[in-house]
Amino acid sequence: MNKQILILPGDGIGSEIMAEAVKVLELAADKFGLGIELSFDDLGGAAYERYGVPLADETLERARQADAILLGAVGGPQWDTIDPALRPERGLLKIRSQLGLFGNLRPAILYPQLAEASTLKPEVVSGLDILIVRELTGGIYFGQPRERRVLENGERQAYDTLPYSESEIRRIAKIGFDMARVRSKKLCSVDKANVLASSQLWREVVEEVGQEYPDVELSHMYVDNAAMQLVRAPKQFDVIVTDNMFGDILSDQASMLTGSIGMLPSASLDLNNKGMFEPCHGSAPDIAGQGIANPLATILSVSMMLRYSFSEVKAADAIEKAVSLVLDQGLRTGDIMSEGCRKVGTAEMGDAVVAALKNL
Ligand code: IPM
Ligand code: MG
C-alpha cells in the first residue's frame, strides 16, 4: 500500500525549501520502489490566514491519517501581534502534542566538507556526530497553569509551569538509551537538578531506566555546564537526552558547531515510530522569497523519514550520500559559504542533490 505523506510547508522560507525536499523525496521513492502519495496543507501563519487558526481540525485529522508528515517551518513577524493563542507556533505545538510526538531526535553532524564553515576551530568540531534526544510534548511548553495577570498593586505578572511525570521521563529516557545502545553506548542526561524539582525527578527516573541498560554508560550534566561544554569540547558528547526547553536551546547551539542551522534535520516520533520530520531551523522571514535558503536540513529530514518511519535504510543512506557529494562539488548556499566554493540558491542546491541521487 502507498505511504501517505502529508506535506506542510508552513511559513517564510517553508515553501521554498519544501519544493526541493519534495523533488528529492519523489526521486528517492521512484528509485527505490516506494509507493508514496503526497497531500499538501497549511500550518502556522499560512493556516491562520486560510482557516483562521494555526492548525485546523481538518489538517490535524489529515495528519492523524497520514503515515508521516513533512514540515517546513512556521512563524513570521506579521503574526507577532495577534492573539497569542493563535500564533503560528501554537499550531506546531498542538500538532506535536495531539499526535503524541514526544521523541525528538536532532542529530548534529559535521560534514567534513563544512569544517571551515563552523565558527569553532576545525580541530574542535571535525568528526562531530552528536544526537540530541529532546522531550517534545511535556515540560514548560505545555505545563498548566500558565497565566498572565495583573496583580492587586497594578503590576503585570506572568508565569509558566514545568511539570514532568515519571512516565513522560521514562519513555524519553528509553529512547535516549536505545539510541546510545546502537551508537557509542554513552548517554548524557542534561538537567538542572541543582535547582528544579522537575529535574530532580528527571535524574532519578533516568537513573532507574539506566538499570535496564547496564551496557550504556550514563552521565548527568547540569544544563549550564552542558552549554559550556558543547562549545568547549563538543566531541565528548554522543547522545544527549534532555527536556523540552533545554533541548530547544541546546539543539540550536549544537547546530552552529556543524556550520549552520541550515544543515540540521529532525524527527519527532510517537510510540509507534510514526513521525513528523522537519528542519530544526525556523521560517527565516528575513530571507523568505529570495530563493537563497539552504534546503539541505529539509532534504535530510526526508532521509530521516525514510529511515525511522519507513525503515527504508538504503533510500535514506542514498539521500545522505547525495548531499555529501554535492558538498564535495563545492556547492554552498550563503549560510555555509566559504572561500573557493560556489554560491548557489535554494533550487540549484535541490537540483544538485537530485542529480547526485540520480547517478548513485
Ligand atoms: C524548534 C522551534 C520551536 C520550538 C518553535 C517554533 C515553537 O524553535 O522546533 O526548535 O521551540 O520547539
Ligand atoms: Mg528551537
From TrEMBL:
Q: Which residues bind Mg(2+)?
A: D224, D248, D252
Q: What does the cofactor field's note say? A: Binds 1 Mg(2+) or Mn(2+) ion per subunit.
Q: What is its main location?
A: cytoplasm
Q: List the GO cellular component terms.
A: cytosol
Which amino acid positions bind substrate, per UniProt?
A: R96, R106, R134, D224
Which SMART domains does its entry note? Answer: Iso_dh
Question: Which keywords does this chain's UniProt record carry?
Answer: Amino-acid biosynthesis, Branched-chain amino acid biosynthesis, Cytoplasm, Leucine biosynthesis, Magnesium, Manganese, Metal-binding, NAD, Oxidoreductase
Q: Which reaction is catalysed here?
A: (2R,3S)-3-isopropylmalate + NAD(+) = 4-methyl-2-oxopentanoate + CO2 + NADH
For the site labelled Important for catalysis, the residues are Y141, K192
Specify whether Signal is a keyword of the entry.
Answer: no
Cite a single GO BP annotation. Answer: L-leucine biosynthetic process
Location of this chain's protein in the cell: Cytoplasm
**Could you tell me the EC number(s) of this protein?**
1.1.1.85
The cofactor named in the record is: Mn(2+); Mg(2+)
Biological or metabolic pathway of the protein: Amino-acid biosynthesis; L-leucine biosynthesis; L-leucine from 3-methyl-2-oxobutanoate: step 3/4
| PROSITE patterns reported in the protein's UniProt record | IDH_IMDH (PS00470)
Which molecular function GO terms apply here? 3-isopropylmalate dehydrogenase activity; magnesium ion binding; NAD binding
Q: Detail which positions bind NAD(+).
A: 76-89, 282-294
Q: Which residues form the Isopropylmalate dehydrogenase-like domain?
A: 4-353
Q: Organism's domain of life? A: Bacteria
User: Tell me, how does this one assemble?
Assistant: Homodimer.
Main function: Catalyzes the oxidation of 3-carboxy-2-hydroxy-4-methylpentanoate (3-isopropylmalate) to 3-carboxy-4-methyl-2-oxopentanoate. The product decarboxylates to 4-methyl-2 oxopentanoate.
Q: What family does this chain come from, according to its entry?
A: Belongs to the isocitrate and isopropylmalate dehydrogenases family. LeuB type 1 subfamily.
What is the protein's name according to its record? 3-isopropylmalate dehydrogenase
Organism encoding this protein: Halopseudomonas xinjiangensis
Q: Gene behind this chain? A: leuB
